[in-house]
Sequence to fold (347 residues):
Amino acid sequence: MITEIAEIGACAEDNEKKLLRAADIIKRGGLVVFPTETVYGLGADATNAEAAERIYAAKGRPSDNPLIIHISSPEDAEKYTYVSDTYKRLAERFMPGPLTVIMPSKDIIPKKTRAGLDTVALRCPSNPIARRLIELSGVPIAAPSANLSGSPSPTTPRHVMDDMQGRVDMIIDGGDCDFGLESTIVKIEQDGSLLLLRPGKITPEQLSRIAPVAVADAVTDKLAEGERVLSPGMKYRHYAPRASLILLDAERGRQAEYIREQQGRVALLSYSENIDYFNEKLPELFIYDLGGESDEKAQAHRLFAILREADKENFDTIFAPLPQKEGIGLALYNRMIRAAAHKIVKL
Ligand code: TXA
Ligand code: MG
Fold:
């Protein structure tokens, strides 16, 4: 398949033409990769079961893992789900934005798109390119992250090309994604309370101002063998670098001592303020700048790009500091323990 690349630039008229062309591909059942404020999405018409099947094939994704449906306006949710008062309050506060809400599905969304579940995940992205594309398509757009199954979600056009060139009809190049980790996912329970299934930029603290929030165990802990998962995506090992990633729960002095004893090619993800320290203690060590220790937005923005970079270098072991579970830190913690397959060393 030949993949068209449409670069979004300074000319509004040209951009509109490119998005019209992309919308036409969606309407005809094709695949278009588009930017969002979280990560790039691999989009197709959510009302077309065959198009959904093409998404699973392009990603190499198991078809029991349902897709998020992207809408251009929060009110459109009524067409696809039975909306509740909690949804309306969430929408008013956080939409458009990086929040996905799981609600009972209407029949218009084919079972293929939602992997046979009777619920559907809805999200209204704030990225203007994404929203214009959905508007012009005239249909909701089903889109998982635009990576090959098992690699980190793409946050730059380069990542998308590496994974998707030749597998999709069009890639819209809208520059780097703003946040860099996937959306927060909550399920609205029957009593109107919220169950957090995937942490993201919208934090539990923020959500709890709308309704009571419980955090699913799988967000922070390892699932027991055979345990039933609430969100199919939880059971897959995601974002896994080829090297063994190990999270260190220790201050930098202990980290340096521990790393000094390691054999093989070793890399470290370090907070910006510790880089000089590690360079001095361990001159041979390969160091990636994860961002300032208290700048979680910088860390979120860089994490997946660093994991992809590190993957090319054939390291045996990559070390990283264990994040705090507060605020956006919970999203970093969740992605990093999964990339590390829960390998945490407390020193
Ligand atoms: O930021 C994002 O959410 C990005 C952009 C493209 O919007 N999308 C994304 O999609 O991360 P994906 O497919 O990589 O992750 C969606 C997650 C999966 O773990 C899936 O299992 C879960 O959402 N999910 C989807 N529908 C669900 C449902 N009805 N019930 C429970 N979990 C669901
Ligand atoms: Mg994904």
Q: What stands out?
A: The chain has a mean pLDDT of 95.
